Structures are given as structure tokens and as C-alpha cells.
Amino acid sequence: MTGSARSHRRVQYGLLASIAQEAGVSAATVSKVVHRRRDVSEATRTRIEALLTERGYVRDRENDAGRPRQILAVFRDLAGPYTLEVFRGIVESAAEKGLHTTLGTTGRRSISQWLQECVALDAVGVVIVISALAEPDQRRILEQRLPVVLVDPLNAPSADIPSIGVTNWHGATTAVQHLIEQGHRRIGMLAGRSSSLAGSARLHGYRAALAEAGIPYDAALVRSTDFDYGEALRAARQILNRHDRPTALFAASDVQALGAMEAARQLGLAVPRELSLMSFDDTLVAAMASPPLSAVRQPFQELGQEATRVLLQLADGRPPTTKRRELATELVVRMSTAPPLEQTNRRS
Predict the structure, then answer these.
(1) Model confidence at 4: pLDDT above 70
(2) Predicted confidence band at 68 (pLDDT cuts at 50, 70, 90)?
């Protein structure tokens, strides 16, 4: 794209955003009128057309050519199996609605730039996954009525911006209760960052399950890391290298669980004979691990469906009935969890 074309796009974007604000509608609604789509009420269309004429807006012929509608799916990064699962859920759900999905990250382009790109590309809206939303971006979304849906946001967004997640606290509680039912009383955890809403909720769920069973919380058995393999491997070695190491470990993600599994291998600990290992996510790699991981399953396809459904609602000018939706998780028991070794020896 030439410099003049980029400049023209910025001017057009600013004009459409200004018209949206004056008309009291979303930028997406103005974009629909510009491209002569039918899913706008006649009164709204008339009001916006009058403003377009008044401001001297000229439609591009190339934009009237009936391009496929698209949504933007923006991730913090593309590392790890979680990203693949969520993106696949969004792509499949969008395709069912006749929408194309454009993938982006915040590595080289900020969320603010992606919001601008959404209007410039005439996209239906943006799904932002596992990212922190800055205050200026939140204001921009609300003031310009941009169709934006958050999936597992890192920080608590404005109550007026819809977000979708899973029952992190309940899922973590269920995972630890399974380990307790197996007979474990010394249970460690590889938690997520405390700044992450999901990571914090999973840690609280872990602590709640211990408290309910009358098991004291031991901070020495808990390490907070990013949802990262290398960090988890190092943290797990610290926990498992203790003379009073835990007999079970709960990881806040599949990637962290794989790091813990490698740490156990390096220390000569057999899973699950000497260490039970429980994960959260249940991405494709969980079943492929050796042994296959017991895990709390996130409904990735439903996450994609719900994000797409809410985004289309917003684009049509219909606010969702609830701004925060949590989808149910499910416990999946495989071969990485078993009763502790001393309990097995007593039985034999």
C-alpha cells in the first residue's frame, strides 16, 4: 500500500468514526450503510446517509464490490497449543456464518492499531484473545461503539465490553478434588501469573479445594509462571527437588504440565507412579503426552461460537444480554494421575 493510500485510509477512518459518534451508532453500522448492506433500520440508514453527504464522503468503487465479510482475531502471540485451539474454534464458527477470519497478534501491531484496521478493512469486528486492554483502548471501543469481544482477557475490562471465558475457579477446584480423592495430601501447583484473571482464578480454586479437604496451604509447593514450557520446567524442578516434594502437581495449563513432565523425567520420577500430574486446557497435546494427561477441558469450539455470536450481535447494534459469560469446563481423567505410591504399597 502506498503512502498516499494509507493516508487516505486514515482520513476515511476518522471521518466514519466521527459520523458514528454524531449519529449515536457503532462504526460498524456506519460501515454497513457505506457498503449498502441491508441489516440496518431505514431510519438509521437515512440519518447516516445524510451525514455522509453533509461531510462529503465519497464511496470507493472497490469497496462496493461485495467483498467477503470478515472478523479479526487478535492474539497476544501464536505460541502454544491454546492459541491454535481457540483460533480454530473462531475460524470454524465464523465460516458457518459466511465470515472470513483474519489472524493477527499484538507483537508488531498494537491493539489500538488493530481497532483502526477493523474499521479501515470494513471488518465486522474484533475478537481479542488473552490480551491486556489498556484504558485508552477501552474508551475508544466504548466511545466509537466498535464491535469487540474479549476472550480470556488478562485484565478486568470495562463492564460494558463483553468478555467470554470458562469456569476457571470451578475447573481448578474439580481438578484438585480429583487428586485428593486419589489419596494425595501433598499437592503442588504451577500457577499462572497473578496478574492474569484466569491464572488467579485457577490458583484460588486450588486453594479452595485444599481448604475444603482440611489440607493446609503450603506456599513452598506453588510457583507462578507464564503459560510457558521453559518457565514451567524450571519451576517444577524447584518444587520436585525438595526432600518433602509433593506426590501430585496441578498445572494451570497443558504447556506448563508438559514442562512439569519433563522436569519429572530429568529427576527420575515416574508419572504417575511417583508423581501424579493434572493439567488445565485439554488441548490436542494433552492426549498425545506420555502418559496422556488428566486435564480440565475447556470448550474451545463453544468459545469460538460464543465469541462469533456476540460479535455479530454487537455489529447489528444489539447489546448482548450479559456482558460476561463463563462456559462450563469438564474433568477428563487419563493416565497421568493415580493414588500416591505409599498408598499403593499399603494396599499390596
Answers:
(1) no
(2) low
| pTM of the full structure | 0.81
pLDDT tens, residue by residue, 151-173: 998 888 888 899 999 999 999 99
The domain limits of the chain are: 1-67, 168-297+331-341
Which fold would CATH assign to domain 1-67? 434 Repressor (Amino-terminal Domain) (1.10.260)
**Bridge partners of 149?**
127
Q: E strands, 18-135, where?
A: 70-75, 100-105, 125-129
Other Cβ atoms within 10 Å of 216 Cβ, number? 7
Angle, CA 305 vertex, CA 304 and CA 309 arms, to 5°: 120
Query: 175 pairs with which residues across the strands?
Result: none
Cα of first residue to Cα of last residue in the chain, in angstroms, is 73
Hey, what long-range contacts does 35-38 have (CB within 8 A, 24 or more apart)?
35/63, 35/64, 35/122, 36/64
C-alpha span between 18 and 80 (Å, rounded):
39
Written as nine digits, the cell of 322 is 450479559
Residue with cell 484460588: 204
Rounded to whole angstroms, how far apart are CA atoms 332 and 10? 49
Third-level CATH fold of 168-297+331-341: Rossmann fold (3.40.50)
User: Using CA of residue 166, residue 172, residue 173, residue 179, what is the dihedral sign?
Assistant: positive
DSSP state of 327: E
